[in-house]
């Protein structure tokens, strides 16, 4: 895993209390701080309690999109007037995007937090407000109807950088690469043993049903009309074929 200069907002849920001296120091040194949004006004300016009766304000143009489930924000101090500090979240996001585009590479592993889930996948923040897209096919080798079967909003996960589109400033991620290889997942399975599995989709010709044995391992059993998606079953391992990375199963009970 590479050194991660930026962590996702709220990865550490500590909310520090700052003095004016602390904040002036942060302004001089261009330091990144974290706070918690207390409220947002009708003009979409955000207000933070920084401690010691100090008001923090992130103007709308310096705020950007926020996640309703996550009130924590990273910011830089842009100005101090008496006991009011004007803050910029945008400055952190710009810097984190620059880091991600220039310091990250394909294959790097980073910490992330699932921020939003869509039918086609999820957006995972990898630090400082910068997010990448995790397509549903990159969540697990097991088939699923919705990403919520495997991940939840707010969940902390490790992801691998699958691709960086520098021209469009987009990042594509993989979670299934963090769940172990086929060889790693199959090594404790033995032919003839009976284990639990979860029924997934049938093959196109209905000549078999995919059974999820582990979060990143599937096998195939004979087709049955009465077997429903998501149903737990007991299966017997008939054959493990390493050269084809296949596992043949037979249903014992369902």
Shape: elongated
CATH topology of the largest domain: OB fold (Dihydrolipoamide Acetyltransferase, E2P)
For the record, the CATH class of the largest domain is Mainly Beta
What's the CATH architecture of the largest domain? Answer: Beta Barrel
Summarize the main sheet.
5 strands, mixed, barrel
Please tally the helical runs, counting DSSP H or I stretches of 4 or more residues: 3
Strand order of the largest sheet: 1-2-3-5-4
Describe the structure in your own words.
It is built from three helices and 15 strands. With 254 residues, the protein is mostly beta strands. It has a five-stranded mixed β-barrel. A five-stranded antiparallel beta sheet has the order 8-7-6-9-10. Strand 7 (121-127) and strand 8 form a beta hairpin. The mean pLDDT is 93.
Give a quick rundown of the structure.
The protein is mostly beta strands and 254 residues long. It is built from 3 helices and 15 strands. β4 and β5 (84-88) form a beta hairpin.
